[in-house]
Amino acid sequence: MTSHVWISIACPDRTGLIAEVAGCLFDHGANLGDTTFAVLGAGAEFTSVCEIPDGIALDQLHAALAALDVLRSADITVRPFTLQPVHEPSARISHVVVVSGADRPGLVARLCEAFAGFGANIVRLDCERMPEGRGDTYVARFAVNIPPASAANCLATVSNTAEGLQLTCKVEPA
Q1: 107: phi > 0 → left, psi -120 to 50 → alpha, else beta; which?
Q2: Which of 21, 47, 58, 118 has its CA 20 to 30 A from that of 13?
Q3: What one-character-per-residue DSSP string does 102-170 give?
Q4: In this predicted model, what pLDDT tens digit does every residue of 140-162 receive, in sequence order?
Q5: Is the CB of residue 3 less than 8 Å from the CB of residue 52?
């Protein structure tokens, strides 16, 4: 018998971080399910829904992670995952939309509202400020599930919204 846990780690970014975390989890019988990792500024965030065998206590798994040198100043959470461990069809990515240009307050909010207006589900969102010669370029990548019946109108609205914010917009089907 197995159970599912939510593991969340926030810490300074370090080379080898994912290898050490994944190795530790493997050594304790954990099987990674949906997992994300991101560098956020000088920090890093690792989040995973893991399947663990019976007999592995949450505090035991937490202690094993906390003992890793690479996680010595980390904020680590290990708790039961009470939702379904496999995502619904609405989390399957149908399109990847990349919007870029000068950073503008509210740009993510406006774009998300455009997606929501067409019943699109944002599955993943990745935003970063990239230093350039004369200022910063802001890049937002949306991996979305758009209902087929509204895809053309949704993508046109998102593109128009981006253009209104003086941003470029590229769309790729997944």
Answers
A1: alpha
A2: 58
A3: E--TTHHHHHHHHHHTTT-EEEEEEEEEEEETTEEEEEEEEEEE--GGGHHHHHHHHHHHHHHTT-EEE
A4: 999 999 999 999 999 999 999 99
A5: yes
1 has a pLDDT exceeding 70 = no
Beta-ladder partners of 79: 6
Residues 22, 23, 24, 27: what is their CA dihedral angle, to the nearest 10 degrees?
120
The span from the CA of 74 to the CA of 65, in Å, is: 9
Q: What is the pLDDT of residue 9?
A: 98
pLDDT in tens, 100-149: 999 888 999 999 999 999 999 999 999 998 877 666 799 999 999 999 99
Q: What is the pTM of this model?
A: 0.84
Q: Do residues 52 and 12 touch, judged by C-beta distance below 8 A?
A: no
For residues 11 and 70, what is the distance between their CA atoms, to the nearest angstrom?
Answer: 9
CA distance 24 to 7: 12
Closest CA to 7 of 34, 29, 39: 34
